[in-house]
Design a protein that fits this description.
The chain contains twelve helices and 19 strands. By secondary structure, the protein is an alpha/beta fold. The strands form four sheets. An eleven-stranded mixed sheet has the order 4-3-5-6-7-8-9-13-12-11-10, with helices on both faces. Strands 18-17-16-19 form a four-stranded mixed sheet. Helix 2 crosses helix 3, helix 8 packs parallel to helix 10 and helix 11 packs across helix 12. It is globular and about 70 Å long. The termini are far apart.
Length: 452
């Protein structure tokens, strides 16, 4: 059985006229979906073992091989990979590393990580990989309600960023597309005013910032622009109800959260019309949610680290990739009729800090800040050592409020203690515009621990 072969599935039109891009796959009953995953995983492991020098060595060292896999549960016997291994193998065999499972001449596209936590890593695609990538993007766009009647402006970075090509997914389903990219806010607002797009995709922070910028220029995004759907990714904010509601109020638009990861490809999961979690493309990616300490599976609904395994990507298979993202999984039926698991992203392991034994994620603090009246939603967290203990402080921008700084600060501290279980050491109220804005992922945590 070849790398892309799998059990037959009832034929479906390439693009459904209704809510699905591929109804046969998206609504496949879970027993059949898991049978498809098992067949693809067996083929994928065999392909990786035969063609990737790294995976042959790693499997042999772990005492496993393609024949080890008799059920999906047997994947637990295979070794993990992570970002550090990616960097190491890329350095060991430049340019693309010895995790590569095809000749370089078969690679037609490469994206790169931002390098925010280390040396940028490259993500290679064959032509077939890239086609699958964009077919999945079309599926997620359709699930969010994007159609051929929409005008779509792609406001993500095109420079080596894996989310850049996702605009092709919107084109595949027939939307009129504007390839804007990460242009200055004034330029993007000009595009929104002139071409009247109905859908855009950016980060939650930038959707908020762009709305603020528009209002400062006398433009009411809800009244003066035509955006009615906003897709966001790159930060947890799109799945935080308070943040989602705040952005929707500014734009009078529906917000849909997507999840992507450069090590595999652009968007791997996205909200449907129910907006009750993000459907993972499970026919192409296998999901595990593991306890970060024991690396054992956790039940659905319990937070754990998301581990992903590609099922068809030939250029560089990713077998048990530890994403560092904390999620919960939900495999119960969705109101939209899709059967693929939904994930809810809590945050990242490396953003989490522990105060008095309590795990605190920036997304929890964001929930508090964005839920409170009298604030404009912008904030920054500083984590520091104090007498050998971890403490955190907040800087928060004032919104429309006549409340004193002291009263606002106390209300924030009280709600943070109620929501998180630990009170901030200090809360500083700032004037609007005091904190830096970004056109990409917001950096909301300043970590001073370990500094003299």
């Amino acid at each position: 059985m070849g790398i892309l072969e799998s059990p037959p599935i009832a034929a479906a039109p390439a693009a459904e006229a209704g809510r699905y891009w591929n109804a046969a796959i998206e609504t496949l009953p879970r027993p059949q979906l898991e049978a498809l995953q098992l067949a693809r995983l067996r083929s994928h492991l065999d392909f990786a073992y035969r063609h990737s020098p790294y995976y042959r060595q790693a499997f042999d060292a772990a005492g496993v091989g393609p024949e080890t896999l008799r059920s999906l549960a047997d994947l637990r016997h295979f070794p993990f990979v992570n970002k550090a291994i990616e960097r190491e193998r890329q350095a060991a065999a430049p340019l693309l590393g010895d995790m590569l499972a095809v000749p370089e001449r078969d690679v037609v596209f490469v994206s790169a990580s931002s390098g925010s936590t280390g040396v940028p890593t490259l993500s290679p695609f064959t032509a077939a990989d890239f086609e699958t990538f964009q077919d999945n993007q079309a599926r997620l766009f359709r699930a969010a309600g994007v159609t051929a009647d929409d005008r779509y402006v792609h406001a993500l970075n095109f420079t080596l960023f894996v989310g850049g090509p996702d605009v092709i997914g919107a084109q595949k389903l027939g939307a009129l597309c504007f390839w804007a990219g990460a242009v200055p806010s004034d330029r993007l607002l000009y595009i929104l005013q002139t071409f009247r797009p109905t859908v855009t995709w950016t980060t939650p922070s930038y959707a908020w910032h762009l709305g603020e910028t528009a209002r400062a220029q006398g433009i009411d995004p809800a009244r003066d622009l035509a955006i009615r759907k906003i897709i966001v990714a790159g930060e947890p904010g799109g799945s935080i109800p308070a943040t989602r509601a705040a952005i929707e109020r500014i734009w009078d638009a529906q917000l849909f959260d997507f999840y992507g990861i450069s090590d595999i490809y652009g968007a791997c999961a996205g909200m449907c019309e129910a907006r009750d979690g993000l459907h993972l493309v499970e026919d192409d990616i296998l999901l595990e949610v593991l306890d970060p300490a024991t690396l054992e599976p956790v039940p659905d609904g319990t937070p754990g680290e998301m581990v992903l395994t590609t099922l068809t990507k030939a250029a560089r298979p990713m077998i048990r990739f530890r994403t560092g993202d904390i999620v919960t999984a939900d495999r119960s039926p969705c109101r939209c009729g899709r059967t693929h698991a939904r994930i809810r992203v809590t945050g990242r392991i490396d953003d989490m800090f522990i105060v008095n034994g309590v795990n605190v994620f920036p997304s929890d603090i964001e929930f508090v800040i964005r839920s409170l009246p009298g604030l404009n939603g912008e904030f920054r967290i500083t984590v520091a050592d104090e007498r050998h203990l971890t403490r955190y402080s907040l800087e928060v921008e004032r919104g429309e409020s006549t409340e004193s700084d002291a009263a606002l600060a106390e209300r924030i501290a009280h709600d943070a203690k109620t929501r998180l279980g630990v009170r901030p050491r200090a809360v500083t109220i700032l004037a609007p515009g005091s904190l830096p804005r970004t056109t990409h992922k917001a950096r909301r945590v300043v970590d001073l621990r370990g500094q003299a």
